[in-house]
Amino acid sequence: MTPLLSVENLRVEMALRDHAAPVIDDLSLTLNAGETLSFVGESGCGKSMTALAIMGLLPDVGRVAGGRILFEGKDMTAMPAPALRRIRGNEISMIFQEPMTSLNPVYTVGEQIAEVLRRHKGLSNRDARARAVELLDQVRIPNAARRVDAYPHEMSGGQRQRVMIAIALSCAPKMLIADEPTTALDVTVQAQIFDLLRDLGRETGTAIILITHDMGAVAEMADRVIVMYAGRKAEDGPVDDVIDTPRHPYTRGLISCVPHLAATLTEDRPELTEVPGIVPPLSAFGADACLFASRCPLADAQCRSRRPPEITFETGQHVACWKADIA
Amino acid sequence: MSLLSVRDLTVRFPVRRGWGRKAWLTAVDGVSFDLEAGRTLAIVGESGSGKTTAALAVARLVGAQHGTVRLEGEDFLTLEGEALRRARAAIQVIFQDPYSSLNPRLRAAAIVREPMDSLGTLPRQDRPARAEELFAQVGLRPEQMHLFPHQFSGGQRQRIGIARALATNPRLIICDEAVSALDVAVQAQILNLLRRLQAELGLTYLFISHDLGVVQHMCDDIAVMYMGRIVEQGDRLSVFNDAQHPYTQALLSAVPAVDRARRRQDKRLLIPGDPPDPLNLPPGCNFASRCPRAQDVCRSQAPVLAPAGGHAAACHFPGGETPIPA
Lengths: 327, 326
Prior knowledge:
The complex is a heterodimer of chains A (327) and B (326).
Chain A: E1 5-15, E2 20-31, E3 36-40, H1 47-55, E4 62-71, E5 74-75, H2 81-87, E6 92-95, H3 109-121, H4 125-138, H5 144-147, H6 157-169, E7 175-179, H7 187-204, E8 207-212, H8 215-221, E9 224-229, E10 232-238, H9 239-244, H10 249-256, H11 301-305, E11 310-312, E12 318-320
Parallel strand pairs in A: 3-8, 3-9, 6-7, 7-8
Antiparallel strand pairs in A: 1-2, 1-4, 4-5, 9-10, 10-12, 11-12
Helix pairs in contact in A: 3-4, 4-6
Chain B: E1 4-16, E2 22-35, E3 40-44, H1 51-58, E4 66-71, E5 74-75, H2 81-88, E6 91-94, H3 108-119, H4 127-137, H5 154-166, E7 172-176, H6 184-201, E8 205-209, H7 212-218, E9 221-226, E10 229-235, H8 236-241, H9 246-254, H10 260-265, H11 296-300, E11 306-308, E12 311-313
Parallel strand pairs in B: 3-8, 3-9, 6-7, 7-8
Antiparallel strand pairs in B: 1-2, 1-4, 4-5, 9-10, 10-12, 11-12
Helix pairs in contact in B: 3-4, 3-5, 4-5, 5-6
């Protein structure tokens, strides 16, 4: 069976003042229908850039420099713009990070949902509006028939994000990319949005790519996880295995540097593990070395001089680290 | 005696509602708490719960309509003139956004010196040495004193903010979402720094946050706020392990967990809908419209904080894991 999405050796370069830096460096992944895949990492690790590359929405300074993005076997990087437009918003859709700025303030939310339906599904004005009401109801906006005529500023942050989800789901996409969909929202609202996404994945078989920096969200939502660091895949594998036995020191750092809520709290509060320093600047990307070496407690001369190959473990984890097997 | 003792603190803002009509938004409604020296009290709640306003009112950065704030027995809210200026040195704030809370036109050393300069807590000639000492305490290098804020990363800027808050040797430090704007790895560095400084210098924190994971790591005591009121209050273990108020229970169950045992408990309490309009609060309990346990009494009578499960909760039906059928 061909996977729904398969990314092969993707390389995306961004033009700097003097050279082009690879913001995504040799990334491969596959995603099957109904599956939820999560990208985690700090800001500046290339998570959002991967999403934009898949959507064909890279900013002007970025370009796909190598590799392929196959959606149902068709290479999206080689596709002419009109064909891409038929897929985008229709078969692949995206939920952006900021529900405050992603909606158009001068149109009603109903109109913004209906627009997608008229454009992609050829519905009439009346049918599109009726469907918009159904969708608002589906994302649990109370009193949808009345709220369809509301403007974005009349809604709360959680409601706006639900409108974004309604727009993204309007054409029953095969794949949904959610880029930090709950970062701006309160935890109780986040829980509602996650439940909504999980139900939708289960009911319609939509595959979901969830981009986040929260390992808790990964644990609750995803089947598989890809840990990104400085444009490269540090580790990937089934969520439970990666969380129980992280092989890459960066993954271990990401999990243990956050104070998590445990089932039962105790008096015991150990110091948080620190990952010293910050993500390297873009100009350092692409070097033939482990880019995490400067922050890694295990790094040696080899780590600083050669890029680590990907090692496969029997759990299905793939780890790009010279020290993966000694952990 | 508590270091900080807040009683019945109420903050209201006038809101214009068109055509000359005016309404009052009660952001903080009769909040009381005590904080012992050397401990950390966390105030948690979602956006709009009034947690930041309450903290800023304690520091007199917003005006309170009503209530008292006693710092070492002295009523901070009624101080005037020179006495107020001296007292201000005792309460300092670490702000949420390390980008907008530092003056971009001052060098780091000048930013850290500013509280000493304006509050006059130290003779002029001693200030540079004190600034240097503060830089070392927060883990910055001496040569970085001459840089401007834009030359620092987010985490380093927050260190400058911490050094500035420490500059006057305050009795109380208010951390207003001090790590919310930082990346997870940097957040750990700052949280460890805050705890280390507390142990070394005997600091007292009023820690405002929406992140329950961070709060459980940092606090000794916790107060949960909803729509301007404290709905549950107690020590760390008692509140986290045996939450009594349905809102606290919902809040805790909404946090995504890495711990598989916690996920398996699978008692997610969904609270549907949105909070009520703060300008038009219902009679009775503010949480009644979203509460799975709400009864008629909840919709008519506001519950007060009362002992429940080893701490205090403002609920007519505290405890109970399962909804009581109506």
